[in-house]
Design brief:
This protein has about 425 residues and is mostly helical. The protein has 19 helices and no strands. Helix 4 crosses helix 6, helix 5 runs antiparallel to helix 6 and helix 13 packs antiparallel against helix 14. The relative contact order is 0.15.
């Protein structure tokens, strides 16, 4: 039997840095929304606009980020974004303490944080290829994914309790500190980075062409294009349901607030279990079939939320569906992430990651707004059923014709599908 891949000490350092910073994110989750509602007395509509506008602006200004990160050394970018996020996060409690916090300032700082999140994700995806062998990618992504699930399940409720007991300044201060710890850990990585093959451009036209290279690379590679369209439709539909689920549980199903927090937290256990078995399932099915089958199976559960009965039975029904969704998402996500990286040319990794993240930041709030409009016209349950149907339909966008009859690796698919680069014209 083949031994499981052994990840390097440098990867484990990267993983520890991710764990520390993600702990801060989970612990302070909800603090900014609490500030907007409880301190700044913002309406629900204003809060929705606040987060939606921050995402949209961050996505737009991040368009040239990919090419800039591609040219730079990735490790200093990771350290720099952690330090910058620490400063941006710390400015919120400082502004609150000095009585200068406003919705406009909060929106600006949220925009900076979301922009830096895109930058960090782009650098992290490219840097990971320097630290992890190709056959270790799924294991590496499984560890990141499992960490996210565990921290969200354990520390988001704890952070919420701290917000209630001590106020949002404590949780935000902890969040700011974790970024500095993460930056210190990243500086301990010793393996040299691969040299960038991107040549600096000499004109604005060439820079603009290179800046759009992530989307262009996605669109020219048939497999990447199919995965991208699938991810946007699935993720958008999932976010369409997200705000409606709270109303359904608390109003239509006549449940208590603790039932809703239970539904938000417990399914993360399914995600952890899924990531635990992801590599084993991929080895059993093969990468191509794992991407297709797991990417399809994860879509089947949310549509049934629209049929939830009232009371305890509804609580258990929704909880079961959410656990199944998270379990199959946990199985799929590491395999998907590793496969996506493997079929992306190395010198396009940062740009592709930035383009992917920026697109999701635009698509998902758009779907949430669409969900609010549809629920006011059709009602909540029909809208949830519609979103669930879109999730199922997203499986049709997976690259079935390319992967179902192929046993080739991601790198073989990369060589066969990516056209030669042409000069800007």
């Amino acid at each position: 039997m083949r031994n499981a891949p052994r990840l390097s000490s440098d990867f484990r350092t990267l993983w520890r840095a991710h764990t520390v910073s993600q702990f801060g994110v989970s612990f302070s989750n909800g603090a900014t929304a609490y500030l907007a509602v409880s301190v700044l007395d913002a309406s629900a509509f204003a809060v929705a606009i606040l987060f939606g506008l921050a995402r949209l602006i961050a996505a737009v200004i991040s368009i040239p980020v990919g090419i800039l990160v591609e040219r730079a050394r990735k490790r200093p970018v990771l350290v720099g974004t952690d330090v910058a996020r620490s400063i941006a996060t710390a400015l919120i409690p400082i502004a609150l303490f000095t009585d200068s916090l406003s919705l406009a300032l909060l929106c600006g700082l949220l925009t900076v944080d979301m922009f830096l999140t895109i930058v960090r994700a782009a650098a992290n995806a490219a840097h990971l290829r320097d630290l992890v062998e190709d056959d270790e990618l799924t294991v590496a992504f499984s560890k990141f994914e499992a960490t996210n699930w565990v921290l969200a399940a354990l520390f988001t409720p704890v952070g919420g309790l701290f917000i209630v007991l001590f106020g949002p300044t404590v949780t935000l201060s902890v969040d700011a500190l974790t970024y500095l710890v993460s930056a210190g850990l990243l500086r301990r990585i010793v393996k040299p980075e691969s040299e960038s093959t991107i040549v600096a451009t000499s004109s604005i036209q060439e820079f603009a062409y290179e800046a759009m290279g992530g989307w262009r690379h996605i669109w020219r590679n048939r497999t990447l294009r199919a995965l991208f369209l699938n991810a946007m439709l699935f993720g958008g539909s999932l976010m369409l349901i997200s705000p409606l689920l709270a109303v359904l549980v608390l109003r239509d199903l006549d449940l208590e607030a603790w039932h809703y927090t239970f539904i938000l937290g417990v399914p993360a256990v399914g995600g952890v279990l899924g990531t635990t078995f992801a590599k084993r399932v991929e080895s059993k099915l093969g990468t191509n079939r794992a991407v297709l089958w797991l990417g399809s199976i994860r879509t089947f559960w949310s549509v049934w939320i629209a049929l939830s009965p009232v009371g305890l039975a509804g609580f258990l029904f929704v909880l079961l569906l959410e656990v199944l969704l998270m379990f199959f998402a946990g199985l799929f996500n590491p395999t998907f992430s590793a496969f996506q990286v493997s079929i992306t040319e190395r010198h396009f990794l940062a740009r592709t990651s930035a383009a992917w993240r920026a697109s999701a930041m635009i698509v998902q709030p758009t779907f949430m707004v669409l969900g609010g409009a549809l629920s006011s016209w059709w009602g909540m349950r029909p809208t949830i059923a519609f979103a669930g149907s879109l999730m199922i339909a997203s499986s049709l966008l997976l690259p079935w014709p390319i992967l179902s009859g192929s046993s080739r690796s991601g790198f073989s698919l990369l060589r066969s599908q990516t056209p030669r680069r042409t000069a800007p014209g």
